[in-house]
Amino acid sequence: MNQPEVSLIISFYNRIDFLKLVFAGLQRQTFKNFEIIIADDGSKEEVVNEIEKLSREINFPIAHIWQEDKGFRKNKILNQAIVNSNSTYLIFIDGDCIPHRDFIAEHFSHRQLNICLTGRRVNLSQKLSESLSTKKVKEGILENQFFLLKDGLLGKSTDVEKGFFIRNKFLRKYFNKKKRGLLGCNFSIYKNDLLIINGFDERYIAPSIGEDSDVQFRLELAGVRVRSLNNIAVQYHLYHKLQPRPIENLRLFETVKTEKQAFSKFGIK
Q1: If residue 35 lies in a helix (H) or strand (E), which one and from where to where?
Q2: Distance (Å, rounded) from C-alpha 179 to C-alpha 247?
Q3: C or N terminus of the chain, fewer CB within 10 Å?
Q4: How far apart are CA 186 and CA 91, in angstroms?
Q5: Residues in CB range of 119: below 8 A, 6 or more apart
Q6: Where does 110-264 have alpha helices with state H?
Q7: Contact at 8 Å (CB) between 200 and 80?
Q8: Angle CA(223)–CA(95)–CA(199) in degrees, nearest 5?
Q9: Which of 137, 160, 136, 139 is nearest to 149 (CA)?
Q10: Going by C-beta distance under 8 Å and a sequence separation of 6 or more, which residues neighbour residue 65?
Q11: 105: closest CA among 209, 198, 160, 28?
């Protein structure tokens, strides 16, 4: 196979049912020359076996990077995924986010040096999430805007307007005038731009901030700007209970902002 033009890095932990739906979305992609790297933060043995089985059924290259479960160490396994990537351009998603069929194509076509691209996601309701199957995802049910709008109005899906994929150039520009923060489950960047800040800071051992706000802050210190792909790089977030957001992350981020060092000593190197 040709050298992949994109490395899609998926942060993952145990939810193989979600990963199957994400893979169904990836099989619809209009852009084909990509590899998948599963950044696995310590899934159980039976889940690892399921991933190996699933990998044999998929027609694109997959690398499964696993580390022992010692609590939340997402940033550490993401750094290992970066090291193991084979392309110069990286896209990051979470293992509970199904991509629109043009997701990879849009990230790749808008790529620029010294620019980090970030899209948005729809938060699907529990009922809608549980009703999905790989067959429905492959048929493109989530890309039906009336279907999403109905569940937004009558169900409990939120941010459904972020699931509307826009092709018109004028509207794309209009809906992206506002500056938006980096979203850890939906962003892309040249590998070298991320290596400038030494990747993710591995001191963050809880969800939130460490995989997005901290990264954006240090990228901007290094001269890398964040650009929004709202209604362009679209994904659909499967429902699950929110994980706790400990205050320790906030305290660490305040320290990082005070020190104003783009290159983290607690990253890849």
Answers
A1: strand 34-40
A2: 26
A3: N
A4: 7
A5: 103, 106, 107, 183, 186, 187, 228, 229, 230, 232, 233, 234, 235
A6: 126-131, 134-138, 145-154, 169-174, 191-195, 213-221, 247-259
A7: no
A8: 25
A9: 160
A10: 37, 38, 39, 40, 77, 80, 81, 84
A11: 28
Q: Scanning the structure block, which residue is given the tokens 């033009």?
A: 5
pLDDT in tens, the chain (269 residues): 579 999 999 999 999 999 999 999 999 999 999 999 999 999 999 999 999 999 888 888 999 999 999 999 999 999 999 999 999 999 999 999 999 999 999 999 999 999 999 999 999 999 999 999 999 999 999 999 888 888 888 888 999 999 999 999 999 999 999 889 999 999 999 999 999 999 999 999 988 899 999 999 999 999 999 999 999 999 999 998 877 777 889 999 999 999 999 999 999 99
Give residue 141's identity as a one-letter amino acid code.
Answer: I
- 44: which 2 tokens? 């159980």
Query: Six-digit token pair at 252?
Result: 């660490």
